[in-house]
Amino acid sequence: MPFVYKHKQCVLLFTLILLLQSTQITRADVTAVIVFGDSTVDSGNNDFIKTIGKSNFRPYGRDIYGGIPTGRFSNGRLPTDFISEAFGLSPFIPAFLDPSYTIKDFVLGVCFASAFTGWDNVTADIFNVIPISTQLEYYKQYQVMLKEYQGEARAKETIRQALHAVSLGTNDFIENYFLLPVRSSQFTISEYIDFLISIVDNFVREIYKLGARKMGIVSLPPIGCIPFERTINLAALGQCREEINKAARDFTSKQEQLVAKLNAELPGLKIVLGNIYGLGIDIISNPSAYGGPRSCFENVVTGCCGTGLLEVSILCNSLSPTCPNAHKPTDKYAFWDSVHPSQKAYSIVAGYLLKTALSVFL
Ligand SMILES: *[C@@H]1O[C@H](CO)[C@@H](O)[C@H](O)[C@H]1NC(C)=O
Question: Where does the record locate the signal sequence feature (predicted)?
């Protein structure tokens, strides 16, 4: 199976390179896309660790590779895959822990992300997944490999010109603070946000010290509106949870302040924050405005997998019926499972980020 999957990937990559060459798209001077984060960007690392937080089974991946799952938590590609492709790099960013890849595959992009993790170590421990500190260790290992492969000087340049993309924080709120008693008994929400911000601050300084100069962090979307939160909203069944949306907005504005501070403080650093909160609200409020006239969103409230109310990871499995897919590879659902956007929603998010925050790197 890994052979088939890699083979298809190569064919796709080759086709893309041909397409790019034939249409003379200017290749950006982003040399690679290096990814840190959670399930929104994990391209398969959790397949190779001991956790129940996996998605390497059907129907995950339903709409790519002939339905062979890759460990991505959606029906297809992730925002970072689309972004990488837009920079003229690989349309599929390989997972660092996948033994079928080598440094040759990782030169143009690598993913250290892990589903169910957060900025907070306590969040990573809930499902025994990869904390951000370990993602940083993997990044250091990657740099050693890259130096062996490209030579010291060229590897440094690759790192300097690589886009370091970070998508993290959702689980600190939905899986940790607003669900479990540990952090919510230690911190008020505002203290917890400050605690998370101090970890983000440290993280950016660490990768800066290691040579990173181009960074993009994505804000939290309106996470109080994911199907899972609507389902467990006992105060107003089916509605968005405003306290969680507020936490997402507050965390995002603190991140905006932090990004401004870091840009001013660290010479040569270009860090941007892509704010997708408003886009998320707009998709939920005006679904018919997204996806073109014949295949716009029709459901932005429940997931495509199973009942769409609660199923995620092992609960969304080969026994779960899924929504019909009339317009392959897109569909009419904004959410694939009760937590994760569909490939189509992800492609809209990626397009938005490329037009806004990431445009400085194009
Ligand atoms: C998280 O855990 C790592 C590894 O044990 C540790 O180095 C780090 O300081 C911890 N981070 C926080 C913010 O506690």
Answer: 1-28
Residue 315 forms part of a structural domain? no
* Residue 347 is a catalytic residue: no
Whether residue 322 lies inside any domain: the answer is no
The count of domains in the chain is 1
* pLDDT score, position 326: 54
Residue 293's pLDDT is what?
Answer: 72
The enclosing domain of 347 has a CATH number of: 3.40.50.1110
User: Would you state the pLDDT for residue 265?
Assistant: 98
Distance CA(116)–CA(37), nearest Å, equals 9
Question: From CA 171, how far away is CA 202, in angstroms rounded?
Answer: 19
pLDDT beneath 70, residues of the chain: 1-28, 326-330
Model's pTM, two decimal places?
A: 0.91
Whether 311 is in a domain gets the answer no
| Residue with CA closest to ligand 1 atom 3 | 133
In a domain, 88, yes or no: yes
Q: For residue 296, how far is its CA from the centre of ligand 1 (angstroms)?
A: 44
Instruction: Quote the pLDDT of residue 330.
Output: 60
Q: What angle do CA 31, 60, 97 make, to 5 degrees?
A: 45
Ligand 1 atom with least separation from CA of 199: 13
Residues near 248 by beta carbon (within 8 Å), at least 6 away in sequence: 173, 219, 220, 221, 222, 223, 224, 277
Catalytic residue flag (residue 288): no
The pocket around ligand 1, CB under 6 angstroms, is made up of 121, 131, 133, 199
Q: Ligand 1 center to residue 137 CA distance, Å? A: 12
| Spacing, Cα 53 to ligand 1 middle (Å) | 21
- Structural domain range at position 205: 3-283+343-361
Q: What is the token pair recorded at 315?
A: 């609960």
